[in-house]
Amino acid sequence: MQITEVNKWNLIILILDQFTTRLLSSCCKMSNLMSEGITIVEDLHKNREPVPEMKAIYFMRPTAECIDKFIDDFKPKPKYKAAFVFFTDYCPDDLFDKMKKNCAKHIKVCKEINISFLPLEAQVFTCENTEAFKSLYSPNSKDRDQTLETIANQIVTLCATLDEYPGVRYKKYSFANEFSLQCRDSANGNKLAELVDNKLARHYELDDNSKKKGKTPALLLIVDRALDPVSPVLHELTYQAMAYDLIPIKDNTYEYKLKDGSKKEALLNEEDELWVKLRHMHIAEVTGQIPKLVKEISASRDEKKQADGKITIGGLSQVMKKMPGFRKQVTQKTVHISLAEDLMNHYQKNVEKLCKAEQDLAVGADADGQKVKDPMRTLLPVLLHPHDTTDKIRAVLLYIFSLNGTTAENLNKLIQHVKIEEESGYILNWKHLGVPILSTPSMFSFRKPSRRDRSDQETYNVSRWTPVIKDIMEDAVENKLDVKDWPYQSECPSAWNGSRAVSARQKHKGSSPDDLRSGSRLIVFVLGGVSYSEMRCAYEVTHANKSCEVIIGSTHILTPRGLLEDIYNLGKQPMESFNIEDKP
């Protein structure tokens, strides 16, 4: 939707639902809307005063709730002179007919604009659907199929926005046992792949020239959360992942204290150039940048003082022009000095003691490469230390994941030791994702995905784990995914291998974002949530391959605590939900 397109109708009221509010906030400011003639932005779901002499733009999801709220605005008496309706994606026939039946004479325009995803970062998107987790994995779910249908529609709008018609592949599992539901998870991925492929075919059936659109050099991989339960549970030590794990950041807003004791808030988003530069760095590298930032702030303030004493009438306008940028830079540096210090305080107080044990359990070897022969000896110091309950649960889970499940007797002892007898669902409910928690005689059929050898790569001893998704991205880019494990729902052009060969005799020049877009694309969608460490992998693989842009998305973004709460609440009724924050 281009606001300039509707400006000719002199509309000044824009009505949004919760999702479209976040969508617009991610890509434009109120000043951008005002420059296009929009002076009032209203919430669809709140009571609003009638303005019968004015027209209104409705930008909303095509849901029953939104349609009902829209109808309420025009019955029995219209609140606005006319409505111009824009849906984020395909509006189901029954809802469209309901709206048409009740409000047809008030609707001047009704369009589906195909953008029902939230672009969080340059290479990250989300469906903004936290409820999907319960719908997909709860044994009591009654809306799994509908949830998959909705997600498929959202993925199609992403592809349409990128003008991509990708080949589609999904992860297939070939086993199941009493405690493992991987076959069902494979069914989730298989079903979603089928839905997306069919919907893409319908969407691209005819283009503007009445010709069928062919496949583009892109690949869509559909992955289930069960493929890697380790990454979202580990304490990750890169800046962004660490911040969202250890600091109470809500809606990307970080609250910090100034020297005078007052509090300020800062948005951690793409507008913050320093955040974009630092977010994927290891905390050790970030803290190395802090002295430099402090010196820059000090130097900038000294320069300002000197300039203040030399300002002439002629130079005043130039100084005034530079002031907003100067203040912005100083503010950003102050924010990240504060955030880095906060994170280091957490690390030194508690996290440092956890990291070695977590890494040994996750990798299956210590920092010297020696295999961990007795994971319980690695776990025991964590259990004996007065860490909080959440950290102990995370360590116990890593222990269980390392063994592909443990005995019922051992599991009961662990639950008792952590003192979560009444909240054992934090551990037991992982079985609903298809993750082995209890070992059984049939466990020989379970096999972990083989990992890439990264022994020659330099890493920090407390950050040796690499998310499984990075292996998958690299294998896909190099055309090494096994067809038995990753069947094609539909094939992309045979020439696509994720990267274009460059002769060693050719001089390689750096790629800008525009150059990347001229190459191939790998789109990875993770059912059940994606972690910040996995998001980072999309940038790393893109940077390494230059001509293949990797985009990663999911139903929602995970934090370790948020994931544990989601796991616990699987199979529970709403009133029975328990928040892990309530535990000491």
From TrEMBL:
The keyword Protein transport applies. One of its GO terms (biological process) is vesicle-mediated transport. Belongs to the STXBP/unc-18/SEC1 family. The keyword Transport applies. InterPro entries: Sec-1-like_dom1, Sec-1-like_dom3a, Sec1-like, Sec1-like_dom2, Sec1-like_sf. Transmembrane segments: none annotated. Keywords: Protein transport, Transport. This is Syntaxin binding protein 3.
